[in-house]
Design a protein that fits this description.
The structure is a homodimer of 359-residue chains. By secondary structure, chain A is an alpha/beta fold. Chain A has 14 helices and 13 strands. The first copy, chain A, has helices spanning 16-26, 39-45, 74-82, 112-120, 139-152, 171-189, 203-215, 225-228, 230-240, 258-268, 287-298, 320-327, 337-340, 346-358, and strands at 3-9, 48-55, 58-65, 91-97, 127-132, 156-159, 194-196, 198-199, 221-223, 244-246, 273-277, 308-312, 332-334. Chain A has a five-stranded parallel beta sheet. In chain A, strands 2-3-1-4 form a four-stranded antiparallel beta sheet. Chain A has a four-stranded parallel beta sheet with strand order 7-6-5-13, with helices on one face. Chains A and B meet through helix 2, helix 3, helix 7 and helix 9 of A and helix 2, helix 3, helix 7 and helix 9 of B.
Chain lengths: 359, 359
């Protein structure tokens, strides 16, 4: 059984067969197939052209990629799917279907939607999420914001993904201080608000951040897999032991369809919740793309837990009813700047957000 | 002094100022600037709009990004340069200028062109490079190919970047066997051919591969930074201690200008030689793009060693004179499939390649 990868290619009909065969060679043996003598390589390693179908003014070519060529490892899987052809602007990767059992090499989310519901104690309703911003703020300011958001009853407070390990709020100072502020507010309210700090940097930095987070009882992690690198993201999960919320930063620089990358692949690689730019905000994803991302995150997949979709990017409290109607119950709504704009009315605005979601 | 990042934006002239300011907020504080009370954040953290210039039917917007916001770390630098706006298809990142001294946080290539010339003993002429292919071949076949290429006098023999750690030629078996074959040929010829195996996978796998490579005396490494992740690529260099040849797989070509990513940024992050798809082969980079990649790799940059450009991707021995005329002496020409197609005439074809470059 092959991995079925579908590419949308801008090519004339007369050339579509030759282009598909060239892509099959490019994405597997990367040499002229005629120069290969080994029958095993020709039959078992060279990618097959499974189908060529017109799609609008382009062609959808589905290749059959031999699972063995991926070494069942993330960087090599991404290489086989979109390594060289990422450099060919006429080619987009639009979907991938894995053979049954392939997912066991990765395992997918360790917690998924159920694990996040258990952690936050939220059942039967969507979750709420907000962000600590802006970067450049001193730690005390971020901790105070977190305290206010937790008092308002927001379920998950994440760092802005721009809060990394800068001198103005280093991870080792910021994360314990914010976690303490959230713990205090939880004691006041009896709530279970969870803090998700940003993990960034190289493997050694990530391990150190995981140690600090564990020490102060952090409940969740925010990671941008395309910034730290997918294999590093996967290895981090083994030492984290808490649910991971993925951020799509830098994920748009390659021509991989967002439902595939932010939904299906991030899920395969272990995201428990996946942030994506909702339509009608600061980003231009269509409503259909967003619906498909949520579908890839939550739909049934043998052996791989469903993932919480997290629409974001310029959302407001006013849009909550519409978002709930679109995404249903298994969703976490993320409003960051839309709350912070309330300034001195932050607590009230936070409470309005929570009330709108609970309504 | 700010980092000057230039973005090419598809926007109407009437909206170009507002779009530039929105991008400045998106790529720094990621919230409405009006909601920020802290004067330090407004003055020192929010990205500035330095210029807006028409470019064909689009606008080149240069932002001033505060170096402190990058935490002087690669994943956060890429986040500040192209994190969120990678998700805005109307935005491309076309150039970055770093303030003097910024490069000290990274250090750039440890070896660069001079280091590779010392390693290979090649002075006063371009270098030659070829690739072991196809994946799926048994280790003995790859070792035999390497032996033949080394007999032909090719300077650097790299793994195909699709040779990762698959069961048909696992790193731990393949790399010692190929290195032995190259060593043998070097003893026969008195040459100094160097082998560059593919490093892939997560941080733990990379460390283990570095250990194996060190044990058997491997002289160079092939790494695709966008597949293993840039921060992981950087951390690997510290344990490798040998020059690194970067591969552009998964580096996508559309939204970060190739001269910036494959030339300038890979150089900042430590590449000693950088492979890119030459014009007129299987990829559609223009001659001008290729010239600019080579320029970004080799041009004078205070404190950062020059990097060897490696044009590749469907090149042939027949094109050697033209490539030498384009790229001059400080270049390494990579011909893979173009040699392998010679089959039983492989040794002769390799010798013709070497002779053409030495001519």
């Amino acid at each position: 059984m092959r991995i079925l990868a579908t590419y949308r290619i801008a090519v004339a009909e007369a050339e579509s067969r030759a282009r598909a065969e060239a892509l099959a060679a490019e994405q597997s043996v990367e040499m002229p197939v005629a120069a290969i003598d080994d029958p095993h390589v020709r039959d078992e390693i060279v990618a097959t052209v499974e189908s060529i179908r017109p799609h609008a003014d382009r062609f959808d070519v589905t290749l059959g990629i031999a699972p063995a060529t991926t070494g069942h490892e993330a960087s090599q899987l991404m290489n086989m799917l979109f390594g060289n052809c990422s450099l060919q602007p006429e080619v987009e990767l639009v979907d991938v279907k894995f053979p049954d059992g392939y997912e066991r090499a990765f395992g997918g989310p360790r917690f998924g939607i159920d694990g996040i519901r258990t952690l936050t104690g939220v059942t039967g309703r969507p979750l709420t999420c907000t962000a600590l911003k802006p970067q450049g703020s001193p730690v005390a300011h971020l901790a105070k914001l977190a305290h206010t958001f937790a008092l308002a009853g927001i379920d998950v407070i994440k760092d802005d993904h721009g809060l990394a390990n800068q001198p103005f709020s280093p991870f080792a100072e910021r994360v314990p201080a914010v976690q303490r502020a959230v713990d205090e507010a939880n004691r006041e309210t009896g709530g279970r608000t969870v803090y998700a700090p940003t993990f960034s940097g190289g493997p050694a930095a990530l391990r150190e951040q995981a140690r600090i987070a564990r020490e102060c009882g952090v409940g969740m992690a925010l990671v941008a897999p395309m910034l730290v690198g997918i294999p590093s993201f996967i290895e981090l999960q083994a030492v984290l032991g808490i649910p991971v919320l993925t951020h799509p930063a830098f994920a748009g620089s390659v021509r991989v369809a967002p439902p595939l990358l932010l939904g299906k692949l991030f899920r395969l690689f272990g995201a428990d919740a996946t942030i994506f730019p909702n339509h009608g905000g600061r980003f231009s994803f269509s409503a259909e793309t967003c619906r498909r991302i949520a579908n890839c995150a939550r739909s049934s997949w043998q052996g791989v837990r469903p993932v919480l979709p997290v629409p974001a990017g310029g959302m407001t409290v006013e849009r909550v009813p519409e978002m709930l109607a679109s995404y249903g119950t298994d969703v976490m709504l993320l409003i960051g700047g839309g709350l912070l704009s309330a300034k001195e009315r932050l607590l009230e605005r936070g409470r309005e957000f929570v009330a709108a979601v609970r309504a």
